[in-house]
Design brief:
Blueprint (H helix, E strand, L loop, with lengths): L1 H16 L1 H20 L6 H37 L2 H6 L5 H35 L4 H10 L3 E5 L7 H12 L9 H17 E2 L4 E7 L4 H4 L5 E5 L1 E2 L9 E8 L8 E8 L4 E5 L9 E8 L5 E3 L5 E8 L1 H27 L4 H15 L2 H10 L17 H21 L3 H6 L6 H29 L7
Antiparallel strand pairs: 1-11, 2-10, 3-9, 4-8, 4-11, 5-10, 6-7, 6-9
Helix pairs in contact: 1-5, 2-3, 2-5, 3-5, 3-10, 3-11, 5-10, 5-15, 7-8, 10-11, 10-15, 12-13, 13-15
């Protein structure tokens, strides 16, 4: 352990001698202080959050991420090219400890820079919030500067009904030539649309499970509903839709009743009274469409219940911790490529891996359309399931699964919307990002570095 820490100290000293660290510190200072001053928000809590949290944290993550890749490649490849690594390897230190010591040194610098930048953002956030109007300050502290958990109604299981209707339809000669999976997909969408579609005068009920004991835990604490509706006919027109709400157990309880109206295709958050959770830990919500136009409540984002779970500073610290996990993975990627390649080539390969990680939309498109060649312009899917298309879907599916594990816990989105990053979620992120993702690159890099002939002519 002592040799590894010694390598980490040497790596940290070498990094501090690079001009990159000074440039990086200046850029971070510019992002944290200058960016919020240059970019003016519209005075609303949402606009304030977009600049002070989303833009600033995203810029910090991008700067540190790019610098981490560069440092990971440079600290090992440069020393290999100028033969200074041979002096270190001549000591009685296992090469895996040299590799891990360099990763540790990079991460110490990253954690220091990230902590200072994060603290500056938090202080600036509290300071700049005072410039908002009192109503927007209240909204900011109620909707953003909080750490709330969310609960949704479980997605209804319609597979039995899908199979039943499929068996009825398949008997018709007119659809015998259709793809059977496509027919099942159509039936499933029809059934789910019936759940989400709300005509004028109709009532939609949600039974949201919050968990046993939550009625007592959230006693006298106001909750919030976050909802989003769709109305294709009036999309982008600014039209509003009126609804009536009844919240609470349906029997033996005085339910909360109120009306409100809001627009389509954007999230709306509004408070509800406390103490309406049933003894079984569920919250029953009835909504009636009081307008003259039908609307859609999406299954995933139609309605959810938000309730407090932690404080914002602690949640902010957990968010920075997840960003540090991402940096740890990038450091492992940089060191892995530098374990075998020269600096220029290692940097190119490392940034190529990063580019693949940022191409999630393209990867998802290939999976959705079923391949890469022979895509129909009318249906958006491949016309023939060739071997190449099937192989590409499998490969891209595996890549997407890995990317989902790494980017699944998005701390910036959680912090900008007041979502709670629980310790369980952070622990899972550490396991998936650093333990699995970083572990794979670390194992590969150490294996290559251990077997590399460093004394060979360059």
């Amino acid at each position: 352990m002592q040799p590894m820490l010694a390598v980490a100290r040497l790596t940290l000293r070498a990094l501090l001698r690079f001009r990159l660290v000074l440039v990086l510190a200046a850029l971070l200072l510019t992002v944290v202080i200058v960016l919020p001053l240059v970019l003016k928000h519209d005075g609303s809590a949402q606009g304030f959050t977009q600049i002070l949290i989303t833009y600033t944290l995203s810029s910090i993550t991008a700067l540190l991420g790019l610098a981490t890749l560069w440092m990971g490649c440079g600290t090992l490849a440069r020393e290999t090219e100028d033969f200074s690594i041979q002096l270190l390897c001549s000591k009685p230190i296992p090469r895996w400890q040299i590799w891990m010591g360099k990763w540790l040194g990079i991460m110490v610098l990253n954690l220091a820079l990230l902590s200072v930048a994060g603290m500056a953002v938090l202080v600036l956030l509290e300071y700049k919030a005072r410039s908002l109007e009192p109503a927007e300050q209240s909204r900011l502290r109620a909707e953003v500067l909080v750490a709330r958990n969310s609960a949704k109604e479980p997605t209804p299981n319609v597979e039995a009904e899908v199979e039943k209707r499929y068996q009825e339809r398949i008997k018709r000669e007119s659809i015998q030539s259709f793809d059977h999976d496509f027919v099942r997909k159509q039936i499933r969408e029809e059934l789910l649309a019936a759940v989400t579609y709300l005509r004028p005068g109709e009532v939609r009920r949600w039974v949201v499970p919050l968990g046993s004991g939550m009625a007592e835990s959230l006693k006298d604490i106001p909750l919030y509903l976050r909802t989003k509706i769709y109305s294709p006919e009036y999309a982008g027109t600014g039209a509003t839709f009126e609804f009536g709400w009844e919240i609470g157990p349906t029997e033996g309880h005085r339910r909360q009743r109120f009306r409100n109206s809001f627009g389509a295709e954007s999230f709306t958050v509004f408070p509800i009274e406390p103490n309406h959770i049933g003894t079984n830990g569920t919250l029953t919500i009835d909504c009636v469409n009081l307008g003259e136009r039908p609307v859609l409540f999406g299954l995933q984002d139609g309605l959810e219940v938000l309730f407090p779970a932690s404080t914002f500073p602690l949640n902010f610290a957990r968010g920075l911790l997840v960003i540090a996990f991402w940096l740890g993975l990038l450091a492992a990627i940089g060191l892995c490529t530098a374990s075998k390649l020269q600096f220029n080539v290692a940097t190119f390969v490392a940034f190529s891996v990063l580019l693949v990680g940022l191409s999630g939309g393209t990867i998802k498109q290939v999976i959705d359309q079923g391949g890469v060649i022979g895509v129909s312009s009318e249906t958006g899917t491949v016309t023939q399931p060739t071997l190449l298309n099937q192989a590409s879907v499998q490969v891209y599916g595996a890549i997407k699964w890995c990317l989902d594990r790494i980017t699944g816990s998005d701390p910036i989105d959680a912090l900008s919307t007041g979502r709670n990053l629980s310790w369980a979620r952070v622990s899972l992120a550490a396991l998936e990002i650093v333990g699995v993702g970083g572990g794979v690159f670390a194992a590969l890099g150490i294996w290559v570095f251990t077997r590399r002939e460093l004394a060979a002519p360059q």
